[in-house]
Amino acid sequence: MDDSCGPLDTFIHPSAEVAEDVTIGPGSKIWHYCQLMPGCRIGAHCKLGKGVYVDAGVRIGDRVKIQNGISIYRGVEIEDDVLLGPHMVFTNDLFPRAFNDHYELLPTIVQRGASVGANATIVCGVSLGSYCMIGAGAVVTMDIPDHALVVGNPARIIGHVCMCGSRLNIDFRQKTRTEVGCSSCQRRIFLQPGSVSVI
Fold first, then answer.
1. pLDDT tens digits, one per residue of 166-196
2. pTM, rounded to two decimals
3. Most exposed residue of 6, 91, 109, 192, measured as fewest CB within 10 angstroms of its CB?
């Protein structure tokens, strides 16, 4: 890291390849061997680790951490405050063939505050809910609700997490409205069938 950079300075490592019409917000850091394609937008205060590829036209929100070895292809949208762990994978074609000249681009949305663990795979056409947490190595093939904690292949919900990331002591399968407090940050969490609200 270049310690001479101020909090609003943008840093681009000399080994990075950045197209001329890329937009990079203030305070963002683009590290070794990144490749940013034409028309992509990187928000403010983002950190792109070694070997990150951002496809043409992709939009990345503010305060996003994209760790080493990640490719973000067309069709993927990353909202604010998202964490993408090392070498996680996005796909953008459900029926890939080397000899196809066309395919259907299915959008994938990673909503605000979501975290995706190392080596997880996100199959295209899904939405990852706000503040959900995807476990390392999980293979996500369906939409994930807000605050859900998911693991495995295929990924399945095993609980819920607070905005702070701590696991909540609630039964995610229960059918009635429940209120609990986060033991780490003391936020109040309301669980209703199919949704979680945090105050």
1. 998 876 666 666 778 888 998 887 776 666 6
2. 0.90
3. 6
Q: Do 113 and 164 meet the contact criterion of CB atoms below 8 Å apart?
A: no
Output phi, psi for 144, to 5 deg.
-115, 130
| C-alpha pair distances (Å), 122 with each of 26, 60, 135 | 29, 16, 11
- Encoded amino acid at 192, one letter: Q
> What mean pLDDT is reported for the chain?
90
Contact 128, 111 (CB under 8 A): yes
Euclidean distance between CA atoms 130 and 125, whole angstroms: 16
Q: Is the pLDDT of residue 80 over 60?
A: yes
pLDDT category, 1, cuts 50, 70, 90?
very low
Cα separation values, 23 from 73, 119, 125, 170, Å: 17, 28, 26, 42
> Cα–Cα distance between 76 and 106 in angstroms, integer?
9
> Contact 111/130 with Cβ under 8 angstroms?
yes
Q: Give the list of residues 6+ apart from residue 149 with CB closer than 8 angstroms, or none.
A: 132, 133, 135, 157, 158, 159, 160, 161, 167
| Cβ contact 165:185 at 8 Å | no
Q: Write out the H or E segment, with its range, that includes residue 179.
A: strand 178-181
State the amino acid at position 124 in one-letter form. C
How many whole angstroms separate alpha carbon 175 and alpha carbon 164?
25
Residue 22 near residue 42, CB atoms below 8 Å: yes
| 20-45 pLDDT tens trace | 999 999 999 999 999 999 999 999 99
